[in-house]
Design brief:
With 250 residues, the chain is mostly helical. The longest helix is centred in the middle third of the chain and has 21 residues.
Length: 250
């Protein structure tokens, strides 16, 4: 909670809170340490000097400098902890804090040691899940596996076309796929084993097309095709109106 914010108007939230914090800080004696005062009085040049002295091989470390241009959309470490100041000042304070932590880590790196990991001792000398010897390479299509093979199926969720699968129901998908593959294999064997026969093409004699407008009868009601002179006739049933519409002599 920021005190006396109700009487401050006409400025942005950052400017208002900054002025309030300066007013509160002036009222507190200097001998009382404040968190923001400690950060403000901290020297800001050491981290910037370390980054400025980076070699060409460490060019990635020079992206974060003490003169960040407003509008930079990259990530600023510890940037979310500083607010109420200009963008350049906020970035400078955040980079200083980040560099100080890196320096502490580099100086105290010898204090950290890796605890050796104990090897895992098997509970039994025998394998709990013996590996099955694969007579076909991994990834072989179920279509190419022989009938009766344990991997001749498709897993649930397979969305490809599976011939003869529509005939099998009331079973799990792996069982359906196995049965469908067996039926498909039987069909292929039957077709390949049948003797080849010559294809005979039979041409039927052409007949006259059926008549739509008969002379001795009318059309069926709800016929949606065109009927000549239909719009000029009324007062009779549909069948009587459409009888002999072409005025042909019987």
């Amino acid at each position: 909670r920021v005190a006396i914010t109700a009487g401050q108007i006409g400025g942005t939230y950052g400017e208002t809170t900054h002025n309030i914090m300066n007013t509160v800080e002036a009222a507190i004696p200097k001998d009382i340490p404040l968190p923001h005062r400690i950060i403000k009085e901290k020297p800001q040049l050491e981290a910037l000097k370390r980054r400025a002295s980076c070699t060409d091989d460490e060019w990635h470390k020079t992206k974060l400098t003490g003169t960040m241009v407003p509008g930079y959309t990259g990530y600023i470490p510890r940037g979310q902890q500083y607010f109420g100041q200009r963008y350049t000042s906020t970035c400078r304070s955040a980079i200083q804090n980040f560099e100080d932590d890196l320096l502490v880590k580099q100086n105290d790196e010898h204090k950290f040691r890796m605890i050796p990991r104990k090897p895992l001792v098997p509970l039994s000398q025998q394998e709990k899940y013996p590996q099955e010897i694969k007579d076909f390479p991994y990834g072989t299509s179920p279509y190419r596996l022989p009938v009766g093979h344990s991997d001749r199926y498709f897993i649930s969720g397979y969305t490809g076309f599976l011939p003869r699968a529509q005939e099998l129901i009331a079973r799990t998908y792996p069982e359906i796929s196995t049965g469908a593959l067996n039926l498909h294999k039987a069909d292929q064997d039957r077709v390949r084993g049948a003797p080849r026969q010559n294809i005979i093409i039979m041409n039927r004699a052409r007949t006259a097309p059926p008549k739509i407008y008969a002379s001795d009868s009318g059309l069926i009601p709800h016929y949606t095709g065109h009927v000549p002179t239909m719009k000029y006739k009324f007062g009779r049933t549909f069948g009587a109106t459409t009888q002999n519409v072409l005025n042909k002599s019987v």
